[in-house]
Amino acid sequence: MLLATPWREWGLPAAPIAGAVLLGGIYDLIPVQRTYVDEVIRLGPGEVRECSPMWLPGVTCPVIVAWGEHETDEFKRQSSEFAAVCEAAAAR
Q1: Structural domains in the chain (count)
Q2: pLDDT class of 91 with cuts at 50, 70, 90
Q3: DSSP state letters, 47-81
Q4: Which of 8, 34, 51, 86 has the fewest other C-beta atoms within 10 Å?
Q5: What is the mean pLDDT of residues 80-89?
């Protein structure tokens, strides 16, 4: 989420982060809505997208996306997809 923050709105340079290493994160909260966790967090459809790095623009620095060997398939899938999103953003 820090990588997608509109830093200029906070009076900072547009890209104050030089790079990031992301480890086994949840980058898309949409699948969470189909689990028991949704009973606790109760995010609406708009909130889920707003709180999911996968759907936010703004990754402007080099990023390494990694995950642990024993992560679930869903964590691995999300990590791979988010890495592709970051790579596409860097190519623009």
Answers
A1: 1
A2: low
A3: HHHHT-GGG-----S-EEEE--TT--HHHHHHHHH
A4: 34
A5: 89
What is the identity of the amino acid at 6? P
Q: Give the β-pairing of 63-66 and 20-23.
A: parallel
Q: What is the CA radius of gyration of the chain?
A: 14
To the nearest whole percent, how much of the chain has pLDDT over 70? 97
Tens digits of per-residue pLDDT, 22-53? 998 889 998 988 888 888 988 888 898 888 99
Residues whose CB is less than 8 angstroms from the CB of residue 17 and which lie 6 or more positions away in sequence, other chains included? 2, 3, 61
Diameter over CA atoms, the chain: 41
By residue range, what is the domain housing residue 38?
Answer: 2-91
Classify each residue of 33-66 as buried b or exposed e, where b means 16 or more C-beta atoms within 10 Å of its C-beta: eeeeeeeeeebeeeebeebbbbebebbbeebebe
Element (H, E) at 7: none
In the structure encoding, which two tokens stand for residue 17, read together? 């982060």
